Amino acid sequence: MPPRQHLLGLWLLLTGVLLFSGVGVLLWLDSALKLAAAQRTTIWLLCLLPGVLALVIGMLLEKRLFRPLRQFQVLLARLVAAPDAQSDFPLDGWLSPLQPDLDQIREGWRGDRERTRIAHDEGAAHAAYIQQELEGLLQILDLPLLICDEHQRLLLFNPAARTLFHDQPALGLGRQVSQLLPHTSLSEALHHLPTDGTPRQLLLPGDTRWLRCELRRLDARHGGALIVLHDTTHELEAGQRWRRALAELLPRLRGHTGSMHSAVEALLQAEDNVELKHRLVQAISEESRNLAQRVGELTRLVESQQLSQSALEDTWSNDLFQALQERLATQSIKLTAIGIPVWIRVDGPALLAMLELLILRLSASLNTHSLDVEVLLGNHRVYLDLIWAGSPVSEQLLNQWRTLPLFDDALSPKVSDVLNQHDADLWSLMRKPEARACLRLPVPSSLRGSAPRSTDAELERPEFHDFSIADLPPPDTVQAGTPLTQLEMIVFDTETTGLNLRGGDRIISIAACRIINGRLLAQDSFDQLVNPQRDIPATSTSIHGLRNEDVANAPPIDIVLPRFNQYVGSGVLVAHNAAFDLLAVRMAGDECGLTFDMPVLDTLLLSRALDPTFEGHGLDALAERFQLIFPPGTRHTALGDARVTAELLLALLPRLRARGVNTLEDALALQLRVELENKR
């Protein structure tokens, strides 16, 4: 059916021509013939009748045929794109008799889909049970795990891996391991793993950490590998400190020993020289004292090595306090945990022993049997406070406590060793709001922060595995011929200070989500505010709600854009009205030395190509047409718009496939045709 504006134009043109022609004929006849009043009325009616009939017939056709046809077209498009959409409006006009047939087709299709779904669910029940058991196991494993296919694409990663790579935008299903761990040695090792499953060890350097990898070939259909990761940064640093201290101490020990040996030999030979004997005895005595001092240093070094930073683990503060309360119960000391519990990263046994020792000393020194304990979040640290009513303890007393051994053992580590293990120290101060004293111990914080451990079975399970990715074409396949359902697509959106990008407006928010293997990954997203380093006009704030203070502490675009580029990787970009967002990203990329020259799909152009007769192709109109929902408060936010755009694209894919648009090349050609038609 031709576009409504074309039909409307033709109807108005025909009606106008008939009316003006009738008026022209009427004026000519009135001037050429002398007509009576009755004749003039008849002529008027006859001359204006064609125009009036065209007007009435056009209105009738619009109401009874053309509008119902457009409704019918929308219903068919919705039925294909979103078969389960509800609240379908009924047909009216001359198409209303088709309503029972359309209902029958729709309900039959939905019924078939429901029966297929039920059969699929029943058939997959056992597999789902095994999958849930696997997910439950992976959730509690502390070791980061990755599974990749033969093309080194990620098929699985567990929550521990997500925690380890929390600052890496390149972590995601279907992404290549080399994007996450860009080490040639790792790629080569994965290519040459033994087929019998024998593990291989690899140490990977990084900017801020060292990772030990255990690689093992999997005897699976996808021919991939299992990668087990361990962060050995603290372990290596502790080992280096130990070796460095030992390397400094051993030559000094050898020097003192050699000096003593030489002095003893000289003493044996100097039988008659009393003065020389005296000097040699003094030298031997001095060297023996030095040697004893160095042996003491060696002993302290051995003692301190019993505690290593590699033993630090994520610990829930309330679990630590509960264990401490049980140990203090036999000493008749009451410990009360107050405040909000948090995750801390500590060596639990060593910290427990030190806290028990310090509390016993505090109780004896202050003559109290009741203490409060609280953890407070600081900047990259957590402050553990032992609190009492009274005055702080002196620094002299704290120095004495730092030298106390934890256990009755000759090589027992001391309080200072535990403090060094946690890069911490002790100090005592007054807590001003409550006028109570405390003994404060700063300990490392965990990446988990203050979020409690979830026990809610109803929480949405994270998507961290998809073994069907192994069935996708190899990564080096030319994208142009790849089916749309097998592409990795990054759907993105930006918010800016204004619409005049070439005039100085800049990005203030950028967000994206990923579609892989025809699925929108619910928990795989990129969302970042950007400091534009200029004011946000009030007119723009009224649209997206972002103010200057909202982005004041956000990183600038030269920090954000490289991370966004990592998130995009080799995927295909998708946006709604992509020309604007792509211009914003490319102009920012020029400033940062980044290029975004990957293929781009535009859901606005695709919608126009599929429904050229429809008037509304804005994101709001399309969301209403296909019953896509913006969660409250997410419209005109970068991530909210990107997610709805992704759902819109998934809704358009079946309709594109029905018209023979199957590959990326087909979709780009369709977009180009629409662009050229719009320019005419």
TrEMBL record:
Reaction it catalyzes: DNA(n) + a 2'-deoxyribonucleoside 5'-triphosphate = DNA(n+1) + diphosphate
Taxonomic path: Bacteria, Pseudomonadati, Pseudomonadota, Gammaproteobacteria, Oceanospirillales
Keywords for the protein's UniProt record, in alphabetical order: Exonuclease, Hydrolase, Membrane, Nuclease, Transmembrane, Transmembrane helix
SUPFAM superfamilies: PYP-like sensor domain (PAS domain), Ribonuclease H-like
Top-level division of the source organism's lineage: Bacteria
EC number: 2.7.7.7
Transmembrane segments: 7-29, 41-61
InterPro entries recorded: DnaQ (IPR006054), PAS-like_dom_sf (IPR035965), PAS_4 (IPR013656), Ribonucl_H (IPR013520), RNaseH-like_sf (IPR012337), RNaseH_sf (IPR036397)
Protein name: DNA-directed DNA polymerase
The Exonuclease domain, residue ranges: 488-658
NCBIfam families per UniProt: dnaq
Pfam families for the chain: PAS_4, RNase_T
Keyword Ion transport: no
Top-level EC class as recorded in UniProt: transferase
